[in-house]
Amino acid sequence: MNSKSLKPLPRFTSDRQAEDFVADADLTEFDLSTGRDMLFEKIPPEHVAADDYVFVITKDSQNRFHFDVKQSSGKILFSSAPLSSREAALKAIDAFKAGISTAATKDAPDAAA
Fold first, then answer.
1. What are the phi and psi torsion angles at 66 (to 5°)?
2. First-to-last CA distance in the chain?
3. What superfamily does domain 38-102 belong to in CATH?
4. Residue range(s) in the chain whose domain bears CATH number 3.30.160.160
5. Contact criterion met (CB below 8 Å) for 58 and 67
6. What is this structure's pTM?
7. Looking at residue 112, what is its pLDDT?
8. Rounded CA gap, 88 and 98, in Å?
9. What are residue 63's phi and psi, to 5 degrees?
10. In this structure, what DSSP letter does residue 38 have?
């Protein structure tokens, strides 16, 4: 099946919807090229230590670079979009590090309950 005949991924409003979709759908019918693993988890600042996290740069089969922010346990907390080079990934990591300490916390309208 070529990519022109593949269905686009639906939009999900919750993790549960995404998990149910993956459990029940025939994923070979869908264009997965735009999908990315993402996990967002609010961690209280008092539970965060600098040595608990590591940035891991990987290269995919299309020679694009990505970085993950992982806990020392190996759990992925954040995955980047594809980047064109290792140098671009390093710059993105530096920008992420610089911006994260001053980032505001906001609730999306559907999470403000």
1. -135, 160
2. 43
3. YegP-like (3.30.160.160)
4. 38-102
5. yes
6. 0.50
7. 60
8. 15
9. 60, 30
10. -
- Token representation of residue 39: 């996990």
Q: Count CB atoms within 10 A of the CB of residue 12.
A: 13
CA 89/CA 60 separation, integer angstroms: 13
Phi, psi of 83 (to 5 degrees): -125, 155
Tell me 110's DSSP state.
G
Residue predicted with more confidence, 112 or 96: 96
pLDDT for the residue 38: 56
* Token pair of 42 as six digits: 């609010």
Give residue-wise pLDDT tens across range 81-97.
999 999 999 999 988 88
Number of Cβ within a 10 Å radius of residue 2: 5
Element (H, E) at 14: none
Q: Tell me the pLDDT tens digit for each residue of 47-104.
A: 556 567 888 999 988 899 999 998 878 888 888 999 999 999 999 998 888 887 777 7
CA–centroid distance for 28 within its chain: 21
Q: Comparing C-alpha atoms, which of 50, 82, 53 is closest to residue 67?
A: 82
